[in-house]
Amino acid sequence: MTSTVLSPLSPRITGFPFPFRTDTYRYSTNVEPARAPVVTEAGGWGGAILDVDDEYADELAQRERVLTADPSRLTVLPHMRPACWDALRTLLRELADLYPDRMELRRDGDHFVWRNDLLGVEQRFRDGDDDSLPGGPLGFLGSQIQDDIVLLDQRDGSLWADAGLVTFAADWSLRFDVGMRFLEVHGPVPRVHEEGVIARAERFLMRLEPGQEYRRTNWTMSVDRRLDQSTETYPEWGRDRRLVAEAPADELANRLHLRVEVQHLIRLGASGAVLFLIRTYMVSLAELAQVPAWRTRFGRVLAELPDDMAEYKGLTRFRGAAADWLLTS
Ligand code: HEM
After folding, report:
1. Ligand 1 atom with minimal separation from the 172 CA
2. Per the residue annotation, which of 216, 225, 226, 241 is the catalytic one?
């Protein structure tokens, strides 16, 4: 008798937030309460707001390189300083609660002491004093969590994207968007304005009470595991979208990735700002295909996706080849 020994799935696959619940995908105001664990065909995700995984040190090193090359990825309009401190305190506490053996936030008079054994960091800082932390509150926060961060101010009946640390944008630019209204930020997205998706989302966010936490997912595709796909660096990554479409099947399956963002939306208690966290996960088509249900579903989603959505997401050149590989190879 012969038996097949299947190699265990890697944590990258077992923890992957596979986003499709049906064989078609359309935009919607897809929000749900945060912290609810999701079981997938390969494992699960979503039990906590933050998630330190195997890519932690590598992704934080990438962020530092991107920021050094382009400091505008961290932009804070002056009135958002209290919101940055609020975000820092909230998320360092969150990390310490999640990993009590490795991390601790201790108060010491008007100072805090932050310890993160995973990075070998011990940092003392004074609450509210930007100069007491490397990078200020938002820069330091971005050196401890893998998520990109945007902070929105609520005034004059709108939300304004007035601060952020975004080094892993999927084809947009913080420098361009900072200071814009929520509606303007979403200006380039097809369909959502006519369908009222963005106006509804903004009304929902403006009604959030202090401490309320929601999440949603968003997805696109990318060539290779490149996190920084900001508009500013388009010349470095845009060309690969064309080249990969002509690559042999093996190369296509290893280089093309499904890129999923788990986005959290949290009303901060002290400042009243809305905290928007964007955590990016990627698996190659070859990895995805290790889970047969995902392979078929993503193939069908790609094949059915309307042209305007595929174009906006930058998939036009290779989505046919990707769907073929997933569904027929
Ligand atoms: C419930 C809340 C939200 C909904 C329903 C929503 C919806 C969407 C959708 C459908 C897209 C197109 C994504 C794609 O096809 O790849 C998008 C893109 C985007 N969203 Fe949101 N979003 C929400 C919250 C936010 C927040 C709080 C921000 C913070 C500023 C934000 C910033 C962006 C940006 C920068 C883009 C890319 C726009 C571009 O192409 O320039 N979103 N959003």
Report:
1. 41
2. 216
